[in-house]
Design brief:
Layout lengths: L4 E6 L3 H13 L3 E7 L3 H11 L3 E3 L2 H7 L4 E4 L6 H10 L3 E5 L6 H13 L4 E4 L6 H11 L6 E9 L12 H4 L3 H16 L5 E9 L9 E8 L3 E8 L8 E8 L2 E5 L3 E6 L2 E4 L8 H20 L9 H20 L3 E2 L1
Parallel strand pairs: 1-2, 1-4, 2-3, 4-5, 5-6, 7-10
Antiparallel strand pairs: 7-11, 8-9, 8-15, 9-10, 11-12, 12-13, 13-14
Helix pairs in contact: 1-9, 4-5, 5-10
Length: 334
């Protein structure tokens, strides 16, 4: 009989209630043994809803008194570093919701602690696990698009949290870049096999916000000769949430939503688009399911971690240069 993987969740906001807990409770061989939140009303309500017996308002008490192998950290970003390092010192494998931290230096502290104590950390980059994006990655790897040279991505939607902390720089670390831009950056780097960035040019705008950017546009030149273009916004006018991704290669192009794949062959265009595609909401939900399955598998030793601490360090370095470019109003050479 397979023993269940025991997991705890710290932070019971929207992402835990809508995604993490419902998915974990449905997974076989997984037992959510404890939950923690500083808001007592939310803590008891969520614990009752998902049938979790052990509840804590202090995560340090939970680390001392509850037995589990892995923990999900889904708290405000300003608390990530302290909570993650304490979990690492307690020898717990950690899934940290994006962004891993507010800054590169905070990220470095978390990553170094994990290496020192030989603990696995994974950063929540669920869009990598979206089925249509996973299929696109496999098509690129198979060479069907040739050498990809231009990736253009955009995400226009309301901010991911209505919490007051979310638009305060000292709490969140930044605005739409750390909410949506970091996800798009991760997808672009992953699809291009993590090229080195040569230059970054970013423009930020505070249209409806005071302390952090609510719209951002970036242009990046990569080694040897590829380009990434990103646009993210909480405030640009749109009838509905908009997420798009275009990849152009030497032999063809692909785009979503919905997924469409066109390969060029001599003077013809061949449509390689799958016959059936799911709706974006179902794909988004499956991205979290696949991500959590992967995390549990890594805790069990069945698969290596994806979206590692080292990758998070690389992303945060790029993001800090995006902010620097916007502040200095100039292109930054890396």
């Amino acid at each position: 009989m397979i023993e269940p993987t025991k997991i705890a969740v710290i932070g019971l906001g929207g992402i835990s209630q809508v995604n993490h807990l419902p998915i974990l409770k449905k997974m076989s061989h997984v037992d959510v043994v404890a939950v923690c939140d500083i808001n007592k009303n939310r803590l008891f309500s969520v614990a009752h809803k998902f049938g979790v017996k052990s509840t804590y308002t202090d995560y340090k008490e939970m680390l001392q008194n509850s037995n589990f192998e892995a923990v999900i950290v889904a708290t405000p970003t300003s608390s990530h570093k302290e909570i993650a390092i304490d979990c690492i010192k307690a020898k717990k494998n950690v899934l940290i919701e994006k962004p891993i931290a507010r800054t590169y230096s905070e990220t470095e502290e978390i990553v170094n602690a994990a290496k020192k104590d030989n603990v696995q950390i994974m950063v929540g980059m669920n869009m990598r696990y979206r089925p249509d994006i996973m299929l696109l990655k496999s098509i690129i790897n198979a060479g069907d698009l040739g050498t990809p040279f231009y990736v253009k991505l955009g995400w226009l939607r309301k901010q991911s949290s209505e919490g007051k902390w979310f638009t305060k720089k000292e709490d969140a670390g930044g605005g739409v870049i750390l909410d949506l831009g970091i996800v798009l950056l991760d997808i672009a780097l992953w699809l291009l096999d993590f090229p080195e960035i040569k230059t970054i040019s970013t423009h930020n705008y505070c249209i409806n916000t005071k302390y952090v950017e609510d719209s951002s546009i970036s242009f990046m030149r990569c080694q040897p000769d590829s380009i990434i273009s990103l646009e993210t916004s909480w405030s640009l006018s749109s009838e509905k949430d908009s997420f798009y991704l275009n990849v152009h290669g030497s032999k063809g192009s692909a785009s979503l939503n919905p997924l469409r794949i066109i390969r060029r062959s001599e003077d013809q265009q061949i449509d390689l688009t799958p016959f059936k595609t799911e709706n974006p909401l179902a794909l988004f939900k499956k991205s979290y399911t696949n991500e959590l399955k992967h995390f549990v598998g890594s805790v069990r030793g069945l698969n290596p971690i994806l979206s590692t601490g080292d990758e998070a360090l690389s992303r945060m370095k790029i993001i800090e240069n995006m902010y620097r470019s916007a502040k200095e109003n100039s292109e930054i050479k890396i």
